[in-house]
Amino acid sequence: MNEHSPSWIDRCTLGVLLFDAVLLAVLELLFLPAYIGSVQFPVTVALAVFTNPLLVAVAGRFSSNGLVTAAPLLVWFATVVVFGTMGPGGNTLLLAEDWRSYLLIGGGTLPAAAMLGITRGKQPRTR
């Protein structure tokens, strides 16, 4: 893997990672209000806690650029905010008074931000 000129395979892989971030954000939003019986059970938060750091770690393998490494996290967050607050037909999936909304945002961003710091700490410094 050459840092000066990424191959088309690296670029396509990063594109797939970004598409995965959008797809995961939409699915996590849609299934956030899930119930098991009569109990609220936001299982998609666990999905966000697991997959977002994984996307950041894989993106960090393809570039030492911090923005490229953080791109899956940024795309996921932007997708959650846009689709969560401006849903189709004026529906809002992220409600300010719902604890599941905060759990999804925190569970999706905090572990991924920690992985971003770990990944950036392992990357070689360029001057």
Give a written overview of the molecule.
The chain has 127 residues and is mainly alpha-helical. It has one domain (8-38, 58-122). Helix content is 69%, strand content 3%. It has a two-stranded antiparallel sheet. A hairpin with a 2-residue loop joins strand 1 and strand 2. The longest helix has 24 residues, at 99-122. The chain is elongated and about 50 Å long.
Furnish the topology, listing elements before pairings.
Elements: H1 8-30, E1 35-36, E2 39-40, H2 43-62, H3 66-85, H4 99-122
Antiparallel strand pairs: 1-2
Helix pairs in contact: 1-2, 1-3, 2-3, 2-4, 3-4
Unreliable stretches? none
Distance between the termini: 19 Å
Strand element count: 2
Q: How many separate structural domains? A: 1
What would you call the structural class? mainly alpha
Question: What is the spatial order of strands in the main beta sheet?
Answer: 1-2
Radius of gyration: 16 Å
Overall average pLDDT: 88
Keywords: Membrane, Transmembrane, Transmembrane helix
Transmembrane segments: 12-35, 41-60, 67-87, 99-118
Looking at this protein, list some descriptive labels:
mainly alpha; two-stranded antiparallel ribbon; 69% helix; 4 helices; 127 residues
